[in-house]
Amino acid sequence: MNIKASPLTQKLSAFVALSEIELAVLERLHQRRKSFSVGRDLVHQGQSEQTAYILAAGWVVSYKIQADGSRQIVDFQIPGDFLGLRSVLLHTSDHGIEPIVEIEAAEVLVSDLLQAFAETPRLATAVLWAVSRDEAMVVEHLVGLGRRDADARMAHFLLELGVRLSLVGMGSKEGYACPLTQYHLADALGLSAIHVNRVLRKLREAGLVTFQGGHVTFDDYEGLVALADFDPAYLDQSRPLLP
Amino acid sequence: MNIKASPLTQKLSAFVALSEIELAVLERLHQRRKSFSVGRDLVHQGQSEQTAYILAAGWVVSYKIQADGSRQIVDFQIPGDFLGLRSVLLHTSDHGIEPIVEIEAAEVLVSDLLQAFAETPRLATAVLWAVSRDEAMVVEHLVGLGRRDADARMAHFLLELGVRLSLVGMGSKEGYACPLTQYHLADALGLSAIHVNRVLRKLREAGLVTFQGGHVTFDDYEGLVALADFDPAYLDQSRPLLP
């Protein structure tokens, strides 16, 4: 694989063996790059007529504000993920998107996608795969929310992020750099910040995983997988489906 | 709109004004029609190398079996919905799909999709819209699961189904025919069957909605919308985005 390939290219390569033309079309989608600072929403919930982005560097959080004003984190996006693709296809954004660190993202309009799909329909299928994979993650979170206890939920979350990051060369079974705070973890997992702190200490003392100083270290990967009952099949990055 | 248009065609028309060619390609996707009986899985959880389907008539349920053997319903599919599209794009199905009534569904292979997308890239964008809309529904369920009380959750569920069904000409603000049992509702909403029964009686006695004899009747649509805090924007069927 080309060492300079964008994270999106690396990610879609897990689904389809990309041709020279497809690679060129993908790189062209990255032309209109912009930087965004921490804490300024890329997309507002309820906003219409907005743009989608491909995240090239950095982490963002997708969230929904409830009627009671509380914030529920839906997911985090990492390099190679689409931001607001759902929002640009649907008329109104059903969620907000906010950078966690300074990020770089490339602007993509529906017309850019249409043009890219016209040039290479395999790319349309690859994007459909990526969106389906995102949906599989949300389903997994939905099913897990009521069924997993706090320890298993945290373990599952840290393992899922690790597998996602490894696909774009930013993680391994050793661990990964992670800019999330305990408040992010709390809002994503439906726990209090104090509870998050307690769970992380418990997992560390059990010799399974250490999350400290912006780094997740898997101390016992297989042990953590067993605790979380983690089966990464839904992340589907074993081999390309389309040759 | 052509009165004989398939439900999928009716549904995608909400996103894109379909040309003659696109209509022909869509109808061709319906060629390999099959009937399936109640209670026999179309797709097994963990199955690989399977087929996707377009549901042409009837209702199905998508579910996940937990490690403890319990069953969590992820969603119901109605005519015009894809079945197992995620499963055919990912290598392994992350869920099972079972007919609730006798159904008709058309078999679709990845190669059929690739060919259709090559002929008309706008169709690829329309399918991407449909998948994004499915994801928005799962996100809505995820956020609602912990936040809505039982009454609001039931009201939201019955309203969402009504809006989805109206898009394919099977429902209105008056109500719709609905083959779901109280056990389906219980497994979908995370309630016990007894609780479902109590909630439905309460909503009926409040003059909001009646679910009886296989029919949902909205007795006070706006009242139910207010109770559920239901905003159908995420279902995105107000007007086509692509002319």
UniProtKB/TrEMBL annotation, chains A, B:
Q: What Pfam families does the annotation carry?
A: cNMP_binding, HTH_Crp_2
The record ties this protein, via PROSITE patterns, to: CNMP_BINDING_3, HTH_CRP_2
Q: What does the entry give for GO biological process? A: regulation of DNA-templated transcription
What SUPFAM superfamilies does the record point to?
cAMP-binding domain-like, Winged helix' DNA-binding domain
Mind listing the UniProt keywords for this protein, alphabetically? DNA-binding, Transcription, Transcription regulation
Q: Does the keyword DNA-binding apply?
A: yes
Question: Which stretches make up the HTH crp-type domain?
Answer: 148-222
Please list the residue ranges annotated as the Cyclic nucleotide-binding domain.
14-89
CDD domains on file: CAP_ED (cd00038)
GO MF terms on file?
Answer: DNA binding
Under what name is this protein listed? Nitrogen fixation regulation protein FixK
Query: Which gene underlies this protein?
Result: fixK_2
